[in-house]
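Exercise 7b. Backbone tokens:
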């Protein structure tokens, strides 16, 4: 199953292509950020984290091949390049520079969405185990321990921890969690996420009131940092 909450940087100087692609991507649940030239694309990339870049080759200011080269020098983010039939050589060069896939214009929207899902799936393999200090959560076995002692996590707490683990070091918004973990189609006004995070912190954090691993990003959501620190939990054997 593809990650429908991924953030995609869509880079194309043609408004018609921006409209054509951004609408179905957003309809599928992706967060789409647009850029209309190469310089703007590089600026957008520096401003926030992206899970995928869809990159047209024919761009003003900084061409697509140069954008691809600069992105690959600083990141392993997946890149899908958009090419015209007349740009076969550029397509090959783009792949040599590290692009993950290419789509030739004109293209079928269903094929485009399938390529996006496939690239995202390859780029984000499932997390099988999460280690937070003395806490070890095994998502495949659905078990959790702290310093060797069993931790009792609910099914929802396993789902929540796994979702955050797959997006570690990145801010995950409350509404995203309500859609993807709780399964709401329409996001309600509820504190369910905050209450669930509080319960999970009590089980995995050395000090739930001063969390080392699950951090609140005020006004946005939560961010998991597995390398936060290992600590001694009250009651743990030394």
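Sequence design result:
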């Amino acid at each position: 199953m593809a990650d429908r909450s991924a953030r995609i940087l869509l880079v194309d100087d043609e408004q018609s292509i921006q409209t054509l692609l951004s609408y179905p991507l957003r309809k599928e649940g992706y967060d789409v950020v647009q850029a209309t030239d190469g310089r703007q694309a590089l600026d957008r990339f520096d401003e926030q984290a992206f899970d995928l870049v869809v990159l047209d080759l024919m761009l003003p200011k900084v061409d697509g091949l140069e954008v691809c080269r600069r992105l690959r020098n600083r990141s392993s983010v997946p890149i899908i390049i958009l090419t015209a039939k007349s740009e076969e050589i550029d397509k090959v060069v783009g792949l040599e520079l590290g692009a993950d896939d290419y789509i030739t214009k004109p293209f079928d929207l269903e094929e485009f969405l399938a390529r996006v899902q496939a690239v995202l799936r390859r780029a984000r393999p499932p997390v099988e185990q999460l280690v937070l200090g003395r806490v070890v959560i095994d998502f495949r076995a659905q078990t959790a321990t702290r310093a060797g002692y069993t931790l009792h996590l609910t099914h929802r707490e396993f789902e929540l921890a796994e979702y955050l683990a797959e997006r570690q070091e990145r801010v995950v918004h409350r509404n995203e969690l309500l859609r993807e973990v709780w399964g709401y189609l329409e996001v309600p006004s509820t504190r369910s996420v905050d209450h669930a995070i509080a319960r999970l912190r009590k089980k995995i954090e050395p000090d739930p009131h001063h969390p080392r691993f699950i951090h609140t990003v005020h006004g946005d959501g939560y961010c998991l940092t597995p390398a936060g620190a290992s600590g001694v939990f009250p009651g743990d054997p030394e």
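Instructor comment: Residues 11 and 40 are 9 Å apart (CA to CA). The helical segments are 15-27, 38-47, 64-74, 88-97, 109-123, 155-165, 174-180, 192-204.
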